[in-house]
Amino acid sequence: MTTIETPSANLASAADRKRQVRRVAAASLVGTTIEWYDFLIYATMAGVIFNQYFFPKGDAYVNTMLAYGTFAAGFLIRPFGGLLFGHFGDRIGRKPLLVLTLMIMGVATFLIGLLPTYDQIGIWAPVLLLTLRLVQGIALGGEWGGAVLMSYEFAKPEERAYYASFPQIGLAIGLCCSTGVVTFLSYALSERDFVSWGWRVAFMLSIFLLAVGLFIRLRVLETPEFAKAQARNEVARVPMWEVLRDYPGTVVLGWGARLIDGIVFTIYAIFTLSYLVNVVKIPRTTVLAAITVAAFVLIFTIPYASRLADRMSRKKLYIIFSLINGFVTFPALWLMQYSGSPLIASACIVIVLGVLWAPVYGPQAAMFCDLFDTRVRYTGVSLIYQIGAILSVSLTPLVATALLQANNNQPWFIAAYVAAAGVISAICVAAMKRVP
């Protein structure tokens, strides 16, 4: 008997697909929000708490570099997490790995909140801190690729930049939550209470976020594209080998494209905290509030920029804003350091991070997914994103601190570093072949 598809049946099917896409996007958003909250709360504390209480007493500059070194270590291990979870994500599916990475990340962050300080257990304090940081890095290394693919592979081709940006919005909400919690605790507690026990609350809150994230993620289905590849027996045996064999140039260009994204984010969301507090002498709560406002603005500018990327060339949008983000750093850092106004310094953070960075970071997920076939996409995008993070995010606090020191606390070497990254990223994206 032949089944006839009626218009009402097609409409019902389209509506059901739309609901499923939105549910998957929401699951990706909630999960990455939790993951980034966990990861960024560490970054926020690195230059505020860990440099003082988890290393031997000594030179403040050296201890800050050591604290940022543990921050960098989390990024150095991320490619391993990306390849590990990417391998199994391309072999057995996206969903199981997303649940696992979320659990690992949440537990590691909770345990950081329980760690004794250097005065209490000596050398074991930085050792345990570094260990949990590496566990965080492994989990986040596998998280991003899976979350992006869930949204990208469920969405229609003409909406993929928009839906794949939902995990990117998770970074904005996670940043907003992490800096917001620290700002609230800084206001609500005395300095003594904050450094004694208040900072631990921010880490231990992640256990409640973990429960919410697991509840939502366990309810989503496997992506249709992977299910079809699995049904046709087109699953890659060794995804990493296929990526290195078939996409070596693509991966290198992806690393270059990521430079401006990671460096701009790190300068304005992480490095400015120690820079503006220690060099420009702006109160910590003011800087944290500015970063929180920028993160809140990103919640709206990321999806808007991604919608725009679905309507025009993703490459052109990325190239234009790579250059803008690179060269706007000269006036932005000048105003931060020499305007003498905390309000102007805060406005620079909000404008650059909250508005100008969004057209780079938002459409980026779909742009990288476009580069790979379904059978190796998890591994491919994870390889680009996680090693790209080493070259940009992980090293930038160390590089920026060293450049500031070398330039007698003047910001021009840092501005030149960001501008060079913008030019390199623009060139790499222009050379990509498969991006619409």
Describe this structure in words.
With 436 residues, the chain is mostly helical. The chain has a single domain, classed as Growth Hormone, Chain: A, CATH 1.20.1250. Helices cover 83% and strands 0% of the residues. Helix 3 packs antiparallel against helix 4, helix 13 packs antiparallel against helix 14 and helix 13 packs across helix 20. It starts with 6 loop residues before the first helix and ends in a 5-residue tail after the last helix. 55% of the residues are buried. The N terminus is likely disordered.
What would the keywords be for this entry?
mainly alpha; disordered N terminus; 0% strand; 436 residues; Growth Hormone, Chain: A
Outline of the structure:
The protein has 21 helices and no strands. It has 436 residues and is mostly helical. It has a single domain, classed as Growth Hormone, Chain: A (Up-down Bundle).
Please state the overall shape, judged from the principal axes of the Cα atoms: globular
The fraction of residues assigned to DSSP E strands is under 5%
Number of helices: 21
The span between the termini is 42 Å
Domain tally = 1
What would you give as the CATH superfamily?
Answer: MFS general substrate transporter like domains
CATH fold call: Growth Hormone, Chain: A
Number of extended strands? 0
